[in-house]
């Protein structure tokens, strides 16, 4: 059987819990052939863990995309894009490809950093990426930005944001309440244009959750490439990332990555679904 091919257009997280490293590990765990077009390299100061983001020359991104498209990805995912120009290139890459699946993880901030990567990016994401997205996976903050509603604090507000983001063109929307929404459970909201469904697991006490968002979107991408419906793909991705978070580990005094292989190698976690 030939493997489905999954391409991520994303940044490199040198600590390797998030970014393209998370994507490739997840693509591999879910039996797809993972490929990368790299946008930027993120390094961390060992003393403070503050992040430096160094973009790659745009010509080099163009060359990578050309190579990757010649191999014929079945599904394309975006992660950290960083600039409006790169957002435009990612949209163009999907349009030029034969892929029918486009998963947009609208990365605006890194966990532990409160600085938005580049405020102008939000408009470019709305204009260029949302109309193409099969699934978009904002966290609570990003959903507030993409919908224009600002800070979201309740399921009702998440529903309103999902409706607006869907209207802006994304076919399926998952707003990750995750770590940011108060409560004893980790609740995400899935909207397919008709029905709102809450996806819920226990909220694990782990603060070793670096890379959770990338891992969730990468698992969604691989699941779609492997033929799951969008609803099945996001429910299974939620189970995949829940195992990864529960089994996250302490890397140093600043950060702990998720364990990308925990779903296959340690335990599977139940996801409750409820229409609201
Ligand atoms: N403590 C936790 N326990 C269980 N699931 C979590 C926890 N924190 C986040 N998640 C889940 O991990 C996924 C990524 O969410 P989140 O960490 O909010 O995204 P991001 O990394 O993009 O900010 C979501 O499915 C979310 O519900
Ligand atoms: C290259 C890169 N992409 C994406 C992210 C976002 O990671 P998360 O999955 O924790 O939202 C980070 C965070 O450090 C990163 O370095
Ligand atoms: Mg994220």
UniProtKB/TrEMBL annotation:
One MF term in the entry's GO annotations: hydroxymethylpyrimidine kinase activity
Top-level taxon in the UniProt lineage: Bacteria
Domain Pyridoxamine kinase/Phosphomethylpyrimidine kinase: 13-258
UniProt catalytic activity: pyridoxal + ATP = pyridoxal 5'-phosphate + ADP + H(+)
Enzyme's top EC category: transferase
Keywords, alphabetical: ATP-binding, Kinase, Magnesium, Metal-binding, Nucleotide-binding, Transferase
Keyword check for Metal-binding: yes
Cellular component, GO, one term: cytosol
GO biological process, one term: thiamine biosynthetic process
Listed EC numbers: 2.7.1.35
Keyword Amino-acid biosynthesis attached: no
Homology family: Belongs to the ThiD family.
Protein name: pyridoxal kinase
Organism: Macrococcus carouselicus
Gene: thiD
